[in-house]
Amino acid sequence: MQTQTQTQTQTQTVTHADRRLAWEGFCTGPQVLSGAQLDALATRLLGLDRAGVEAAARTELVPYPAARGAVPAIVLGSATTLKKCYEADVAHLVEGTPPDDFATYMEARSVHLAAPGDLTVGRTEPWRQAVAGSTAEPVEVPELDHYYLTHALLTLAAQSPPDAPAAPLARLLRQLRQSPGTIVRLFALDPEARVLLLWLKRTAGLERLRVDANGQEVAERWNRKTTLYPTVEEAAELPPPAAADPYELLAAEARRTPFTREFGVLLPRLPGYSVTRAGADAAVLRRRVHGAARLLRERYGLPLGCFKPAEALTGSRIRTGVPLDDPAALDALARQAMETEEDYVLEAHTDYLRHSVEGYEFILAPSTHVVAGELAEGGTVQITRGSVWEGSVYVDEETCGRFGIDPEVFRGVRAGMAGLLGAFEGGGRSLGFVKGGVDFAIARIGGRFGDTPVVGMQDLNLSSNGAEYVRAFLAQAREAHGGDRRIYAATKVVRPVPGTDLRRLKAAAEEDAPGRWTRVLTSVPGCWGMVGVAGPCPRQAAEDVLALEQRLHTAGLLRTSLRQAPEPCGA
């Protein structure tokens, strides 16, 4: 995507595909550092080129698993280029839909991960309101021109005299010097974060800097959907399936995925293929999309597919129900991949098993997680709007049946996550896998699989993820209830109307009720927010959080309510 930014006297704009679009609905500006600009900053601040930065980061920035509050922390809630947050927001402008403002939302919600006394870094009014209601110490960055917080901090570092860093940088350096064991919590150790953290570490005089983020190989090589799928060309090398068992064929194809080639571990997965953009012109990309569709039809007898960006955030920009025998529809997918310059996967369309609660129907897409370097207890079921994640409900083996998930299936899902963790952190190797989640599908896909449900990984979120917030909220709720582990929790993304800030949303939402513990975690007016409800039953927590959203919508504080939306469709 070729996008340029321009600042006019009053209105900022972005130029995308020769269209000038007003940059409206954001708390930060649209400036984004180019690769060349980042390289120049690395040379100026560190005296290193790109390869030198990567090599230094591998030895000087140490992935360090630590639970919230276990050690002092700096919480750096920057959006990340690895998940193309800026491109996703520009896509909203192109479509004429309200942006998500990922940069502001992620800075504001990260405050919820800070323990008492931790430093939390941010720039905007939603962040200021969030930190004012916390026990963390704010470190405010007076720079709003750049979309990404890391870009703003790097720019400040480059503009500061070597012996007089800007105030927010000086506060971070003082923390590192006074407490060398401080950990830096951030979404992902992307290229920008590596340059920034190396500069902080070296300027503070530390030998190593501990980072609550996955190692570079996990973050950049494996944190993408293509990890689970062979390329079209690799899969085509397999002999024709004839009447092969579809599960045997699925396993044979899995052995050609990047993950299994590297680690020798078979993960539960769905049929699908990687469509790689690198080095492909329009004709090659079209051939790859059509080839993936043909393999799904011929090998598995599947009529429909699902087209997903390899690195999109929260399930956005997914095309579901793609007719695999429709050349025009497949050509449109190839054009999308060509325009966005991304890798994609074309996988089986899933008809999720479903389970209804009052006012909502859950698709069975449970997630399991690694927290502080270990397989976390329990898991979550997802609240979705279409294919987009909008919340989490914490469940465990004792309560998963309340959402229609068989306990044996739940154990199998957790075993799949354990296999991923064991591959990254076993067999005499450690890739620094300290946090992440995996989304699974429990679904019928038809074709040669018939009506039998299949269970497979669909999405790797090997970085900070939405479930961190329901788990942090759950920990606070259990602490407030005397450590009662029979408390469960649900969180829900909400869409505040313009003017509905955190103070206003809290005043309307946080009303005490017997057996219910309600909190507003974040509000970015006009964009995103998050609310949470806890109680003695996860199903009840889910119903209560959805009812809370509906009540706030009825009061005119939210743009939407999931209970008024169409039923979620398969992804």
Output the strand order for the largest sheet. Answer: 4-9-8-5-6-7
Specify the biggest β-sheet: 6 strands, parallel
Q: Per DSSP, what share of the residues sits in E-state strands of 2 or more residues? A: 15-25%
- What's the rounded overall pLDDT mean? 92
Shape: globular
Structure, described:
With 571 residues, this protein is an alpha+beta fold. Helices cover 36% and strands 22% of the residues. The strands form six sheets. A six-stranded parallel β-sheet has the order 4-9-8-5-6-7, sandwiched between helices. Strands 14, 17, 18, 21 and 22 form a five-stranded antiparallel β-sheet that branches. Strands 19-20-23-25-24 form a five-stranded antiparallel β-sheet. Helix 2 packs across helix 8. The longest helix has 19 residues, at 282-300. The radius of gyration is 23 Å and the shape is globular.
